[in-house]
Amino acid sequence: MLSTDEELDPISDAEKNAVKNRAKVGSARPSSLLYTYGPGAIMDLPHFSIMPAGLGDWDRIWQRRTHIPTIIEPRLLKVVRDHLGRQVDSLRPYPWQPQRMGMSTEGSDLGIPARVFPQWLRCTGCDYLGPLPRFHYTNTQPFRPDHAEFTHKNCPGRGGKPKKGPGSPAVPAQHLLTCTNGHLDEFPYSLWVHRGKKCPKAELPDLKMRDANVGKSVGSTIACASCGQTRGMAEAQGSIGREKLPQKCRGRHPHLNAFDKECEAKPALIMMGASNLWFASTQSVIVIPRSDAEEKDALSDRLRAALGIEQIKQFGSQIAVIKALATANGIDLEGFTDGDIAAAVGDALTPAESDEERNKKLEGWDPVELLVPEWRYLQKKTLFQQQPNADGLMVTEMTRDSDLHPRISRVVAVNKMKKVNAVFGFTRLDEMDRVNDLPGRLVTLTRDRRPKWVPATEDRGEGIFLQLDLAAVDNWEQSISNTPLWEAHRASHERNFRRRFSETAKDVEPDSRLPAPRYWLLHTLAHTLIREMAMSSGYGAASLSERIYGWTRTPQREAAAGLLICTTASDSAGTLGGLVALSEPDRLRRLVVAALRRAARCSSDPVCASRVPSDPEDFLHGAACHCCAFASETSCEKANRFLDRRFLLDLPSATGETVPGFFGSADAL
C-alpha cells in the first residue's frame, strides 16, 4: 500500500513546497507516451525534465468533460483484467488537446499532468546544487512552452559577480537512485558529500556540483560551501560504489507522489538518461470482426465504462432504465434483446476473483494467446468478403504469382487495419520477458494498485501478410533442431537469461522462452523484407513494423508460420496505400527475390556469415548485424534478437558447418 502526501519527505520531495504550475510545458505523440514517456518515465524538455503522473491525476483532467471516450476492444481488455484485476472497466485514449482555431480555447484544459523530476537542479552559472523551491520558474510567453525554464535568481556566477537579468538557467541533476522493485529517488547529495553524516556547519548546507570533465557526469564533484568537504561522484559507480550508497530503498514512486511502506531492495545509482530507467509493459491486438458472443461481451464492457458499477447495481433489475441510460451515453443497443442486456448486466456485476486465483491463472499465460485469433481469422478466406468495415479491418486474398517461391503459400493484402495498444505498468533496471513473470515487479499506475482504466491508443494503417508452407516449415524445423548451430543458440540464450541484472528470470526455465527455429526464420525474413520494402513503398524503414505468427503445435493451438509487415499511425485515419500496392503478384515476386538475394551478402562477411555464439558469449543472434539484418527499434518486436540469415538461405561458412536454409541457395532464386 502506498503512503499519503502528508508522509512525504519535505527535503528530497521538494515539489511539495514549490509553487504549482498548471501551464502547458510541452507535447508528445500518443505512441511515445505509450512506449517511451509514459507514467513514471522521465521526459526531457528543452530546459528541464518532467515525469508524467499516475492515473489518479489523469482522472481530474477527465472530470472536466461530460463524456469520457473509451476504446472498445474486448480481447485486449480481457487480458488487461487478467493481469490487473476485474475492476478495470475500460481502455481510454490520451486526453489530447485539439488544434485551436483562431482565439478558441477548446481543449486548453486537457493534457497529461506531470511533475518536475528530478527535483534537484544545478545552476549553469555558479554550479549551485539545490532543491526545486530554491529556483524560480519563468515562462513569459504562454504560447511558447519550449521557453519554460527554472532560473537561479541573483546567481553570483563563478567569478563572484552577480549576473544581470532574470538569473542563470538551471538544469536537472543527473544522478538518481533506483531498485529492482521499480522505485526511483533523488540522489542524497548532502549525505553523500558528508559521508552519511550531517554538515557540521549548517542544517541545510549549500552545495556545488562541478564537472572535472565537461559533459561527463561521472567526473562530477560535489562540494559543500558551508564546511568545505568534497566528494567525487565516480566513487558511486559500479559494485564497489554501490556499497557506499544507502543500503535500503525508501520505496519512492515520484509519478504517484508517494512511497511504498516497505522495500528491502538495495538501491543502485542510475543516470537520468539511462535506457534501463523505464521499460513499458504493453500488449497490442489487431482488431478483427467480432462474433455475436464477443459483441455481447463488448456490451458488458461498454456498460461498465459508461454507467459505472454503482449505477448498474442500482438499476440492474430495471432493464428499461438501463437501456435509457445506455442510450443517453451513446451506446447503440440495436440488435440486442432484453435478455442480452440482462446478461450483460449480470456479467458486469459478477464478483471479481481473488488475487490468488488470478495469479494462479496467470502462471501459464503466454502472449501468443493474443495472436492466435488473428491467425485463425486470416486462415478463413470465406470471411473476408463478409467483413464489416466498422471494425477497421479490410483484407483481400491475393493471387500468387506462378514464379513466386513455392514455399510462400499465401499472400493477403491488408488494405485497412486497426491496432489497439494498452499499457499495464512498467519496470526499471530490467525488462520482464512477459508481464506475468514476476507481477510484484510491475510498477503500479495508481496508488491503490487497482486501476479502473488503463491508457490505450488506436493505430490505423495497412500491411501485407505472407504465409509460409506449413508442411515445409515443419520438415525444415526438424532438420534444424538437432544441429550444432541451434544448440549454440540455445546455450547462448540460457546464458543470457541467467545473467540478467534483476531477479526477474530466476524462476523461469530459459528453454521455455526460446522461440522455435521457425520464429527465427520468420523474424529474419521479416527484417529482410522491411529493408527492401522501404525502398519501394514510400515509407521509411522505421515506419514499417513486423508481427510474427510463428509457433509450433500444442494441445491448445495449431501450428503457425506467417508474418505481417505493416505501417500504422495513431493520428491518421489511414495510410497512403504504398505498402498494399506491393502485394500485386509481379511486384511482390520481384521484391521477395531482391530481398533474399540482398540477404545472401553482407559487407561484414565472412565474419557475419559464420558468427556463432560460444561460451562466455550470450548474444541472441547469429549471421545478422547492422549491415544486413538489423532493423530500427520501432520496427522490431524483439529488439533485434533471434535473427540468423543461415536459417533463411544456404550460406558458406568459414568453419565448414552449414545448415539448410529454408529458401535454399540465393543463386537458384
UniProtKB/TrEMBL annotation:
Instruction: Give start and end of each MrfA-like Zn-binding domain.
Output: 525-628
Question: Residues annotated as region Disordered?
Answer: 149-170
| Entries under Pfam families matching the protein | MZB
- Top-level taxon in the UniProt lineage: Bacteria
* Name of the protein: MrfA-like Zn-binding domain-containing protein
Instruction: Name the source organism.
Output: Gordonia pseudamarae
